Amino acid sequence: MTAKIIDGNAIAEQIRLEVADAVKARLAEGKSRPGLATVLVGENPASQSYVRSKRKASAEVGIESFGFELPASATQTEVEDLVTQLNHDPRVHGILVQLPLPPGLDEESVLKLIDIEKDVDGFHPLNIGRLAQKGRDPLFVPCTPNGVMYLLEKNVPRLEGANAVVLGRSNIVGMPVALLLVRANATVTICHSRSQNLPEITRRADILVTAVGRPEMVRGDWVKPGAVVIDVGINRVEDATRPRGYRLVGDVKFDEVKEIAGVLTPVPGGVGPLTIAMLLRNTLRGARLADL
Ligand code: NAP
Q1: 167, 218 in Cβ contact below 8 A?
Q2: pLDDT digits (tens, 9 = 90+) for 226-237
């Protein structure tokens, strides 16, 4: 069997077009232009590049972006004052504090301060708490997990009752993905660095989501024939043949798993592009919440 390979770039492009159309329609109705504020603290090159991409993608769909940069030496009070100011700014419908924050800053306090109606990253403890509770709904779902679910809903005929295994339990990917799968009525197993006999567990999965950050850890014989495999990992491995000296690979050994799985996401070009597309959707949602 050769897996169907999901084209995340094409799917993300479709979502961006939908957001752009919705923004145009809002403006034609005399409603506000959605606005996204990005807060970057310090000079982590990866964070700088993520924030640049988010701002560029916002501009392309007609979302106004407001960029704020603070030095790594910024105090907790300075970061929190900025978030408070953005909470009160009516032009801002989404506040994104790029993580990780530099050492010494209390991430949880900052995230907790974001107005829950502007929490487009979905990391406010209230939004995450609601995600975990039956009968409650978060105002925003975190972007990468939301992208994973979008791909699953399009590619799994029936999530209900499916056997899902999530590798990784981080706050930003693994745990929210597992909670979303439970909400979709899948039967979910969460694995982490202390789990035993991983291949035995993953081989039972109809749906396998990998978010461990370990290059090509998941081999062909870890996968049930025909399974849907969503690879969230983005890992750099040295490659002297590339101009930058490295290439990106996922948590899944692509060439092996594509011969076994029914559906597979590539890295790059799989889940990655969905993350920003979901951020744009969440910002549009923030603007709609402000209309109410
Ligand atoms: P993280 O915070 O480092 O969490 C990794 C998780 O994997 C932890 O729960 C850890 O277990 C588990 N783990 C680590 N090694 C393991 C092993 N050998 N066996 C089983 N479990 C293991 O990472 P993250 O932020 O969730 O990111 C995971 C990957 O996704 C990274 O490659 C990251 O670059 C990528 N990512 C991609 C996107 C995107 O847009 N596509 C967004 C975010 C992250 P413990 O809990 O026991 O430590």
Answers
A1: yes
A2: 999 999 999 999
CB–CB of 16/60 below 8 Å? yes
* Alpha-carbon distances, residue 209 vs 14, 49, 243 (angstroms): 23, 25, 31
Q: What is the pLDDT of residues 66-111, one digit of tens each?
A: 999 999 999 999 999 999 999 999 999 999 999 999 999 999 999 9
- Residue 1, pLDDT > 90, answer no
Dist CA 241 CA 228 (whole Å)? 31
Ligand 1 atom closest to the CA of 174, numbered from 1: 26
Give 135-139's long-range contacts (Cβ < 8 A, gap of 24+).
Answer: 139/285, 139/289
Confirm if 131 and 179 have CB atoms less than 8 A apart: yes
CA gap 115, 122 in Å, rounded: 11
CA 76 to chain CA mean position, Å: 26
| Mutation to probe ligand 1, out of 99, 150, 175, 234 (largest number of atoms < 8 A from CB) | 234
Cα distance between the two ends of the chain: 50
- Cα 138 from Cα 106, distance rounded (Å): 23
69 sits in which H/E element:
strand 64-70
Say if pTM beats, i.e. exceeds, 0.90: yes
131: helix, strand or coil: helix
What pLDDT does residue 58 have?
Answer: 98
Q: Which residues contact ligand 1 via a Cβ below 6 A?
A: 144, 167-170, 172-174, 191-195, 211-214, 232-235, 271-272, 275
Helix (H, G, I), strand (E, B) or coil at 43: coil
Structure tokens that stand for 136 in this block:
């409650």
The residues pairing with 189 across neighbouring beta strands, listed in sequence order, are: 165
pLDDT for the residue 112 = 97
